[in-house]
């Protein structure tokens, strides 16, 4: 990648902060366009996408399948270079991955040949060394006390995702980029993970960008829900989730939650139908 990236890839360096707030983790997506061109196919995944995410905000992204959600996230992570436009974090153009922008996918990226604790310590070890007792305390918080020496393949799906979250937190990220992180989990485990994430976020206030297909999950967790259009993806609707925090599962039974869910569903339905028409049209 050719574009300059101002902050060095060093988590010990105090990075620039967001304006006058002193907070870090502000994301600016500015006229983002991403075109894939495998075998000359020219797939415009995202076009004219604009979005500001405040430092420490929790934003969920909903949208029809294939509308470019993961593409946007991969550009923020620094895995993909935009075709046009910019992605800025705290005012600096993103051009490569950085542990300050931690990513969680549906399938974990744990090393199967390393123990849970070794996985959690791997990131810090590669940079400035492991702080005594830190991995243990994060694992304890994730409910993995006693599983430090287990190998990931021997754990349940929910425990693997908790270990994945612990691995991410060990890097002390400003931004957590989460791409359908709980969608492969059973309903109960998913609820437990949502509560765990809310607990961690409400305490640490890191910026979270959370892709999901689950409208209830988006509204339960986020400050704002962004609904994207069918491909090429751009922002179709922004829903402010004006429900008090801390939130618990009871909020899903409230009238306000139902109103927000209906609004999100109707916008997504419209865009999902457009996406289907596009597919049918080739
Ligand atoms: N590496 C690639 N090469 C070619 N086309 C790609 C590539 N990656 C994604 N695409 C296409 O770009 C579009 C957007 O894909 P993307 O994965 O960002 O969408 P998404 O909204 O995350 O989808 P889903 O909800 O199904 O996960 C899709 O049409 C997809 O097929």
**Radius of gyration, rounded?**
19 Å
- CATH level-four homologous superfamily name of the largest domain: P-loop containing nucleotide triphosphate hydrolases
Biggest sheet: strands side by side, in what order? 6-7-8-3-9-10
DSSP summary: helix tally: 7
Measured distance between first and last alpha carbons: 32 Å
Q: Could you say which small molecules are bound to this protein?
A: adenosine-5'-triphosphate
Major sheet size, sense and barrel closure: 6 strands, mixed
Task: Name the overall outline.
Answer: globular
Highest-level CATH class of the largest domain: Alpha Beta
Number of strands: 10
Unreliable sequence segments: 1-16
Q: Can you write the helix and strand succession as a string? A: EEEHEEEHHHEHEHEEH
Counting structural domains, the number is 2
Biased composition (Low complexity): 12-25
Keywords: ATP-binding, Nucleotide-binding, Transport
Domain ABC transporter: 27-255
GO molecular function: ATP binding; ATP hydrolysis activity
What does this structure look like?
Pfam families: ABC_tran. InterPro entries: AAA+_ATPase (IPR003593), ABC_transporter-like_ATP-bd (IPR003439), ABC_transporter-like_CS (IPR017871), ABC_transporter_ATP-bind (IPR050166), P-loop_NTPase (IPR027417). It comes from Halopiger aswanensis. This is NitT/TauT family transport system ATP-binding protein. GO terms for molecular function: ATP binding; ATP hydrolysis activity. The protein has two domains: 181 residues, P-loop containing nucleotide triphosphate hydrolases (Rossmann fold), CATH 3.40.50; 63 residues. It is α/β, with parallel strands linked by helices and 282 residues long. Strand 9 and strand 10 form a beta hairpin. The two termini are 32 Å apart. The strands form two sheets. A six-stranded mixed sheet has the order 6-7-8-3-9-10, with helices on both faces. Helix 2 runs parallel beside helix 4. The relative contact order is 0.17. Helix content is 34%, strand content 21%. It is built from seven helices and ten strands. The structure holds adenosine-5'-triphosphate.
């Amino acid at each position: 990648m050719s574009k300059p990236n101002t902050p060095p890839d060093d988590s010990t360096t105090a990075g620039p902060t967001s304006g006058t707030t002193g907070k870090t983790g502000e994301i600016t997506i500015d006229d983002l366009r991403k075109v894939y061109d495998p075998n000359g196919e020219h797939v415009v995944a995202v076009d004219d996408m604009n979005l500001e995410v405040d430092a420490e905000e929790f934003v969920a992204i909903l949208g029809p399948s294939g509308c470019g959600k993961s593409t946007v996230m991969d550009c923020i992570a620094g895995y993909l270079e935009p075709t046009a436009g910019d992605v800025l974090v705290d005012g600096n153009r993103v051009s490569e991955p950085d542990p300050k922008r931690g990513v969680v996918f549906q399938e974990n990226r744990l090393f199967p040949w390393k123990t849970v604790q070794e996985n959690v310590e791997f990131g810090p070890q590669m940079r400035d060394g492991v702080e005594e007792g830190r991995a243990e305390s994060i694992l304890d918080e994730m409910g993995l006390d006693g599983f430090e020496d287990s190998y990931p393949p021997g754990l349940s799906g929910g425990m693997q995702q908790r270990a994945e979250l612990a691995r991410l937190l060990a890097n002390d990220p400003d931004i957590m980029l989460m791409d359908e992180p709980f969608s492969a989990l059973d309903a109960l485990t998913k609820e437990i993970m949502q509560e765990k994430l809310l607990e961690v976020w409400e305490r640490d206030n890191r910026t979270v960008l959370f892709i999901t297909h689950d409208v209830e999950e988006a509204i339960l967790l986020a400050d704002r829900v962004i609904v994207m259009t069918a491909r090429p993806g751009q922002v179709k609707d922004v829903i402010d989730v004006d429900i008090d925090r801390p939130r618990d599962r009871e909020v899903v039974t409230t009238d306000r939650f139902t109103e927000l869910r209906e609004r999100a569903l109707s916008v997504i339905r419209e865009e999902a139908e457009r996406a289907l028409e596009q597919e049918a049209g080739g």
